[in-house]
Records
---
Amino acid sequence: MNKFKEDFVWGVAASSYQIEGAAEQDGRSDSVWDMFCREPGKIKDSSDGRIACDHYNRYQDDVRMIADLNVKAYRLSTAWPRIIPDGYGKVNEKGLAFYDKLVDELLAAGVTPWITLYHWDMPTCLFDQGGWLNPASSDWFADYARVVTERLSDRVTNWFTLNEPQVFLGLGHQVGEHAPGLQLPFEKVLLASHNSLLAHGKAVQVMRAVAKQPLKIGAAPVGVVNFPTSDDPALVEAARKSTFSVSGVNCFSNTWYADPMLKGEYPEDGLELFEHYLPKFGADDMKQICQPLDMYAANIYAGTPLEFNDKGEVVTAESSLLGCGRTTMDWNVTPDCLYWGPKFLYERYGLPIVVTENGLASCDWVHVNGEVDDAGRVDYVQRHLRALRQAAADGTDVAGYFYWSIMDNFEWGFGYQQRFGMVHVDYHTQKRTPKRSAYWYRDVINSNGEIL
Ligand code: FCB
């Protein structure tokens, strides 16, 4: 099979804080990322998202640009501080209206909007009340989810609750490299984690209750992928096991989030490892968290190759990484992650897989001839999509792929130095220049993956 299935979703992704700018426009309140960026030394180039790609004011042009590339779906996130500036309570009509217009614009251009409700920009006023540590946080989030769903679900079918809990909890609450910049003791991190899982579950329930049509709902966690470097069944099994293990006192696993969401229980190994840090859970919390979902979304950029050493222990296959491609984020280029990650996740959770993020940052600038020739990105995406297509051919139900990102944007702690876009952004002029990869991706979409 050298094509994806007919209804395969070809998309691109971005998020509110990373592209919108317009930080103080139309009643938007401060988010934890605004707050974090103001702290000296937190962002590599001392920048922030106050202007970013000014997408808030340029959304019509941006939608046209997406449509011109023949991209079928656009994953955007709604900004909580725009829609409910006080975090809960009063709705800011102007903020909500922006997404209303954006959705209409996309649909008119033939692009299907997919919405993520939380891509990390919590209103600062909620952080001041404890943020994810506050037991009320799950209700705040569910209420915000209700407001957005009531307004947009007549036109939007595909929704995600939380983007990458691993990252906003791990980097944001344990390591301190992301907003809100906390370095909490692990029991507090687990409390924030539990509350955000509750937020997911309560949001799903309220969304289904108020939706104007049946919705397809998922979450968009990081896909942690450990993959085998050969077909040796014992190695495949070891890779699967380690992909679904909780192995460190940190936030980076699949199962700590996905098992509660989809199986209604925390994984045994995590409960053992975290024994001394576990918060007290409410009696019916797991019932709240575990709600039927329609897809398993995963953000997968790279994976860890595994092999057996001389003693028969499974270890990172350092030899296969020797001299391997690396992106400007210093991430390894390991295309097999998009074969094994979706396969393992599909086998464990049984839901169609949507790759909600995959991509790379590279050193792109506009050349003297006015073009941006990002050959590395073409190669990266080609290799990863080939792996994904092979997974589909071998029986994994792969529903879609969203390239991260449609355009260069504010890459969190790295500021504007890391360029993930298929479209180059000149931050002085806001000029957009599609890179070679964008035109190539258009051709891939037009062939439904056949030319890969
Ligand atoms: C993911 C984030 C996304 C972007 C990419 C590069 O962790 O979800 O916002 O920063 O990484």
---
Amino acid sequence: MEIESQPTTQSPWMQFLRFVRERCSETAYENWFAPIREVEFDHTGITLEVPNVFVKEYLLTNYASDLKSFLPTKSDGSLAIEFSIAPQKRSWNQQKPAQDEPKRDEGNNKEVRLNSNYRFSTFIEGASNQFVKSAAVGVASRPGQSYNPLFIHGGVGLGKTHILHSIGHHVQENHRSLRVQCITTEAFINDLVEHLRNKSIEKMKRFYRSQVDVLLVDDIQFLQNRLNFEEEFCNTFETLINQNKQIVVTSDKPPAQLKLSERMIARMEWGLVAHMGMPDLETRVAILMNKAEMKGLKIPSQVAFFIAEHIQNNVRQLEGAVNRLSAHCRLLELNITEELVEETLKEMLQKCPSERISVEQILKSVATVFQVRISDLRGNVRTKNVALPRQVAMYLAKEMINESLIMLAGHFGKTHSTILHACKNIEKKVQTDEMLRRQIGIIRRNIGSYTI
Ligand code: ADP
Ligand code: MG
């Protein structure tokens, strides 16, 4: 037997380790190779115990050809390696209660305090965020054992931070011995800079290596174009993931669209990548009602629908609308009506980017409410039942369409002074004419439902 005849020689696996150790960084070695255990070896093959599937993938992706020079191969030339996953050292539930844990060292002081309102219980579910929510609940219930990392991406103000903090709360409440670290990427970078300046980087590394069980990283997109920090982040990431510590990352883009190294992107894609979309109308209404209720504000449902129809791209804006209404109503002791909402949220609703209104839509909406023909609105008939609606259309066009007067006049086939005159006239009339004010309110509200 070959091995017995050369008892002093290192095993092929040890030889391989020596080979890679000379070729990779100390951190990479500690992260990827040191945790692997050789379980069994004979001429037919080798069995390696790895802490998780990532280590196996890393080894086979990056070192397949080197492994073949050291380890046994099968007749078809493929590697004769069996992998087994090491059992978890302690199950989460059996860990010591938090008070027995050693005091955390001060390797990191940029920790984000979890927002007490951002909980699963206050997160409203809808088709657009159900997937993310259930993945987050899964991760929070069994940290390090379901999807790792969990990568959540989506536009601004859609609830990513809310979900991230919810995971943090859930873990703190249900796995009391687990140490949760929630950081923004900016804070991580600042912390790193500070530790580098104070020459205490080892302390920071030690902190992440031994004092964190669940790492929540908000807004990873800020790592883009920060090459010096990317590597350190990646090392920290690998250290944790190989100890089966849970990582959750949020981003405004999916991994592949981030301007980060391939290595980093690959790591982000290892676990589960989940997209968070804009909630549909019903969910937006539910969120709005919920936020209002939390503020002790009662919003009639048709008003909630009205707001939710006009604010479509950002839940944070919906919340802003509730805050503004609440302040306004409290101050003036008013009840919430659609007119009040229109008045209070005027700029907000207009700023909504989804509202790109055309003259055609305005004409359709005006024609419906005043029961006239669009061709009459465009024409020159001066009878009162046509002239007034025509002026209303001009007034709304000036208010809702961001174009010069000359351009707008062109759409109506009139001069710009006709438009100006119409606007002045309607502005004056609505001061006293309640009926007209209501009609204009309805027209405004309906415009979105007319497509061009
Ligand atoms: P992001 O991090 O994606 O930019 P945030 O998590 O900061 O967004 O969310 C913005 C605001 O909207 C927060 O106040 C959050 O509570 C709220 N929000 C977003 N989505 C929901 C939801 N589905 N249910 C309840 N509140 C939500
Ligand atoms: Mg956020």
